[in-house]
């Protein structure tokens, strides 16, 4: 029973993580394409490559993980299901 629960939990985490990664990568690519002048401006004013991509990375991470924070019901359900599995074992 615990193995089945862990398998379901792993599948949900991988599924949500994959879509968050995909959404973040798509946002990063679109921002870099649409706002390449900002990247060039930051590089031209003495920023390193890491400093120049920081605004793009920040926006991509926020866009990727913000929807996951709104899915608290799913995580609560998985937590309660885990407690039930542990209690029945």
Describe this structure in words.
The protein is an all-alpha fold and 89 residues long. The chain has 4 helices and no strands. The longest helix has 33 residues. 2% of the residues are buried. The model has no long low-confidence stretch (mean pLDDT 88).
Helices and strands in order, then pairings?
Blueprint: H1 2-34, H2 36-44, H3 49-69, H4 72-88
Kindly, what is the distance between the CA atoms of the first and last residues, rounded to a whole number of angstroms? 7 Å
The chain-level mean pLDDT equals: 88
Instruction: Give the overall form.
Output: rod-shaped
Contiguous helical run count: 4
Radius of gyration from CA coordinates: 19 Å
Q: Helicity, in percent?
A: over 70%
